[in-house]
Structures are given as C-alpha cells and as structure tokens.
Design a protein that fits this description.
The complex is a heterodimer of chains A (259) and B (248).
Chain A (H helix, E strand, L loop, with lengths): L1 H31 L4 H11 L4 H23 L8 H39 L2 H7 L4 H39 L4 H11 L2 H27 L4 H37 L1
Chain B lengths: L1 E10 L2 E11 L4 E6 L5 H8 L7 E6 L2 E2 L5 H8 L2 E4 L11 H5 L11 H14 L15 H13 L5 E5 L7 H18 L2 E5 L3 H7 L2 E6 L2 E6 L1 H4 L5 H8 L10
Parallel strand pairs in B: 3-8, 3-9, 6-7, 7-8
Antiparallel strand pairs in B: 1-2, 1-4, 4-5, 9-10
Helix pairs in contact in B: 4-5, 5-6
Classes of the chains: A mainly alpha (259), B alpha/beta (248).
Chain lengths: 259, 248
C-alpha cells in the first residue's frame, strides 16, 4: 500500500514538475520569440470559431433549464420576477465560464492532445526540432494564446445566449411579466459579475491548452499512447477547471468584498 | 567534423549504447550498419541533439552539444538536415509547405524566391510538380524524397539519413541510393546513413561502421569491409542467422 502511495505521489509530483518546466518554456518563448500571427489566427479559428455550436447549445439549454427550475421554486414564494436575476448572476459568475470551459476541454483539449501526440509518435516533432524550430514556439504558444483569447469570448457568448433563452422561456412559456423580469435582472446583475466570469474563462482557457499540449508532447508510443493522452487531457483539464473554479470563487469573492 | 567520445545511453534498465566512439570528417560519407534494435537510430539522434547522452561527449565542429539546452541546440541544428525513417512529413501541410518549412521565419526571402527554391529542391529529388499534393497522396518512396528535399533545401553541412530504404522495393531503394549519392556529390555535404541494407551501405558510404553489442565493432572502407573475414562482420554482411553458413 505504502509503495503504491509513494509511486502515485512521485508520479503526480513529476507531472507537476514537467508542467512547470513547460510553463517556463512558454514564458521564455513569449519573451524571445515573435508570435506568428498566421498560426495564432488559425488556432483562434480552430479553438474559437469551431466551438460555436457546442457553446451556443450549452449556453441556451443551461439558461432555459436554470430559468425553469428557478421559477418553479420562486413561484412558491411569489418571487417570479426575480427569476432572470438569479439566472443572470449564476451564468455570469459560475455556469457561463465553467460549462463553456468544460465543453471546450472536451472538444479542444482532446483535439490538441491527439494532434500533438500523433505528431510525436510519427516523429514530426523530432522533424520540427531538426528544422531548428522549438516545438513550444511553433505548437504550444499559438494554442495557449488562442485559448486565452477565445475562452472569454465563448463564455460571453454562452452567458448572453443563456440569459436570452431563459428570458424567452420565462416570458413565453412560464408567463412571467417581462418588464419586471428584465428590470430585476439589470438591478441585481453587476459589472463585477461579468468581470469575474471573464477572468475565470481567461484562466480556464490557459488550463485547457496547457494540459492538452503537455499530454500531447509527453504521450506514449503508438495509437494506445495517443488515445491515453487524449483521455487524460480531457479528464485532467476538467478536474483542474472544477478545482481552480472553487479557489477562484473564494479569492475573487474576497477581493470584491475588499473593494 | 563530428566526433563522438565514449557515448553511453540507456532507456530504463536497457542499455543501448555502451561507450560508442567515432569520428567523421567534413565531406565524408559514412554508413552505419548493425542489427535491428541495435541502437543505430539512437546514435544518429544523439548527433543532432534529439536525445541527451547519459555519459560521453558529442562534438560538432569542436562544440560539445551534450550539455546544451533545447534553445542552444537550435543554432547547432541549422548545420543539419535529417531524413527520417517514416519521412515524418507534416501531414497537415502540402508538399511545398513541408519543403519550405525551414524558411517560414526567414523574412528576407520573398514568396517567389521560396517557391523557386522549393521547385529546385523537388526537381533535385525527381518530384517536380508535386508542390500542391498532401503527404497522404504520396507513396512511401515519394514521401522519403520529399523528406530529403525538406532536409537539403537550406543547404546544410551535414545530412543524416535514418534507414532511408527500409520498407521500399529494390527499384525505389536504388533510386533513393542514387539520390543520396547525387546530394552528396552536388552539395558536398557530410552524409551519415544508418541502414541495414548492405547494397545501400556499399554504394553510399566512403566508410562503413558497424555497431555491434552497443559499440562500434568495425570501421573500414567499403571494399575492405565487405571482404572482411571477421566472423561477426561476415555473418551480418552475408545475412545469415547461423555464423557457420557464412559465404567466406
């Protein structure tokens, strides 16, 4: 049992150490290497534009379900018109960034790990290195920057669509008075709620790309290695997002309290 | 000049290289032969810094690359071109984009100049007009030729070939051999060919080195090497499982 625990702890520490080295390389690359705009734009398209359908469906249905559930509870205490305010604050602070990040982790994190992993097992990364190109400059940095830029935009999209779809459900299906519904939402949703959501999305974007790239660069040999790396990229990014979200909520909550 | 001094490498408990030493002069063409899984490709990857030695020195033009980090190695790697066993073409790019990859950060070359150089490199490997094809549309031999075009387009001093004829039929192998000889003679590069194809080693190398039991076992000019009476060399050259069946 002790041997197993020791092995597991060593493995986790070694993985964290290697991610720290990769992060150091990324910062070094950002300081010394000029970002190729064409690569960055391609990654923005791949991570941001191609995630549209996933994010729209996630935002829309989450907003609708949240609106209906909130209404079912609030209706008992005659607070129907506060429904959209709850939906809006929940989406801005938590659900918008977290659900968007989890969906993008499934789509983009897996794709990054699979693409870079396949390049590794077919010696394409070694070929890059022999062509005097650092894999971090060419493969990792554009993906990290694109994910940092795309995630806040995608989260904003999910929040807006979530609120809009919730509004439609509340007004047209549940029959809530639209003027008070909208006015209460504006009254209780503050700018800082959206800022918190965007900061979280920015951080989650980096987590997804970093873990995807790391798993791809260190994947084992053969198809099994690539499959394993892909699965781990999704699982580790999702877990890291959920854990990080808790600490970010505490830290930002404290900071907002102090301000 | 490439010099390897007392190189040791293990993967886990499996020792691959145990005190390999060799020296290859500028302009020389060396064929490194040895059994499959004997460490030939591992040795080749050490020369370009793709693997770090456990012990020993690798000197490229007198500079020890062993202790260098990945960014310092980028400068040294500009001296090298490498052709991989599976060609290792970037499958998301066209042939032209693959061949021109080394120029992607060269601001001083215009798109027209790069296209001209790509066309010339593809002409040299007998693949003119394939610029817009994707690697998936090419045969194994064509992929290796594109890999060679990519390796020589920026005119490196040293070209490394990792089993360039493995998995190819004899006719395509012959054309790859001729291509390696053409590149060697036209560009005056130092060539190091890792192979277990005896015909290829005989034709391409000015010198043949044999890796056996984790060390360089024999090193000689092809005419001496292939007439050697040494039982280990003979067994490998004749390609027989039992040493008693050797031809000489």
């Amino acid at each position: 049992m002790n041997v197993f625990v020791n092995k597991r702890v060593n493995y986790v520490l070694s993985e964290l150490g290697q991610i720290a080295f990769l992060t150091k390389d990324i910062f070094l690359s950002l300081l010394t290497f000029k970002v190729v705009w064409r690569d960055l734009l391609y990654q923005l398209y791949s991570i941001g534009v191609k995630s549209q359908s996933v994010v729209i469906i996630t935002g829309g249905f989450t907003g609708m379900v949240l609106g209906a559930q909130t209404y079912f509870q609030f209706h008992k205490v005659k607070m129907d018109t506060a429904t959209l305010a709850v939906v809006s604050v929940s989406l801005c602070d938590e659900l918008g960034p977290v659900l968007t990040a989890l969906m993008v982790a499934g789509r983009v994190g897996a794709s990054i790990a699979a693409e870079i992993g396949t390049m590794r097992v077919t010696e394409q990364i070694d070929a890059l290195r022999t062509l005097a190109t650092h894999p971090v400059d060419y493969l990792v940095v554009p993906r990290i920057l694109a994910a940092h830029i795309a995630l806040p935009l995608l989260a904003t999209e999910a929040i807006v669509i979530g609120i809009f779809s919730s509004y439609l459900v509340c007004v047209h299906i549940l029959g809530i008075e639209p003027t008070y519904l909208w006015a209460n939402m504006l009254r209780y949703t503050e700018d800082i709620d959206l800022v918190i959501g965007l900061v979280k999305a920015f951080i989650f974007g980096g987590i997804i790309a970093l873990i995807g790239c790391y798993k791809g660069l260190t994947c084992g040999l053969g198809a099994e290695g690539v499959g394993h790396a892909t699965t781990e990229a999704v699982v580790y990014s999702s877990i890291t997002i959920l854990i990080t979200n808790f600490f970010l909520t505490l830290i930002m909550g404290k900071l907002v309290g102090l301000l | 000049m490439i010099e390897v001094r007392n190189l040791h490498k293990s993967f886990g408990a499996n020792k691959i290289l145990d005190g390999v030493s060799l020296r290859i002069e500028n302009g020389e063409s060396a064929a490194i032969i040895g059994r499959s899984g004997g460490g030939k490709s591992v040795l080749l990857k050490h020369l370009v810094g793709l693997l770090q030695p456990d012990a020993g020195e690798i000197l490229i033009d007198g500079e020890n690359i062993g202790p260098m980090n990945e960014r310092q190695l980028l400068r040294v790697r500009k001296k090298f071109g490498m052709v991989f066993q599976g060609a290792a073409l970037f499958d998301s790019m066209t042939v032209a984009e693959n061949v021109a990859f080394a120029f992607r950060n060269h601001q001083h070359l215009t798109a027209g100049e790069i296209a001209k150089r790509v066309a010339a490199a593809l002409e040299m490997v007998d693949l003119p007009g394939t610029e817009n094809k994707k690697p998936a549309e090419l045969s194994g031999g064509m992929r290796k030729r594109v890999g060679l075009a990519r390796a020589i387009i920026y005119e490196p001093q040293i070209v490394l070939y990792d089993e360039p004829t493995t998995g190819l039929d004899p006719i395509v192998s012959d054309s790859i051999d001729k291509l390696m000889i053409r590149v060697r003679d036209h560009l005056k590069v130092t060539s190091i060919v890792v192979t277990h194809d005896m015909r290829s080693a005989r034709r391409v190398g000015n010198r043949v080195l044999m890796l056996h039991e984790k060390r360089i076992y024999a090193s000689a000019a092809p005419e001496d090497f292939f007439t050697s009476a040494d039982p280990v060399v003979r067994q490998f050259v004749d390609g027989v499982a039992d040493a008693k069946e050797c031809l000489i």
